[in-house]
TrEMBL record:
Name under which the protein is recorded: Small VCP/p97-interacting protein
Comp. bias regions, Gly residues: 70-82
Signal peptide: none
Alphabetized InterPro entries for the sequence: SVIP, SVIP_metazoa
Biological processes per GO annotation: negative regulation of ERAD pathway; negative regulation of retrograde protein transport, ER to cytosol; negative regulation of VCP-NPL4-UFD1 AAA ATPase complex assembly; positive regulation of autophagy
Region (Disordered), start-end ranges: 1-82
Compositionally biased spans, kind Basic and acidic residues: 21-40, 48-64
PANTHER family per UniProt: SMALL VCP/P97-INTERACTING PROTEIN, SMALL VCP_P97-INTERACTING PROTEIN
A GO CC annotation given for this chain: endoplasmic reticulum membrane
Keyword terms, alphabetized: Lipoprotein, Myristate, Palmitate
């Protein structure tokens, strides 16, 4: 007594095993990140240049904050009139 249905004989070999939940979660996260990058840079010819420009602006902003007058830097000095 072999198999009941001959068309289902090789069906067990064709089944792809499902990865464990942790692997599946990682794959889904990577796919979501890839989709997000693609939509972020849609229409941009050079995304690396955009990233460099954004980082440079952030660095300049940080530097501006550290050299601000409230940070003890050289701002205007106010004299006291008596």
């Amino acid at each position: 007594m072999g198999m009941c249905l001959p068309c289902l004989g090789g069906a067990a070999d064709d089944v792809v095993p499902t990865p464990d939940p942790e692997t599946r979660r990682r794959q889904l996260a990577e796919a979501a990140e890839k989709r997000q990058k693609e939509t972020t840079y849609r229409g941009v010819k050079n995304p690396e240049a955009v990233e460099r420009k954004k980082k440079k602006q952030e660095e300049m902003k940080k530097q501006e904050m550290t050299t601000s007058p409230s940070g003890g830097g050289g701002g205007l000095k106010v004299g006291l009139l008596i």
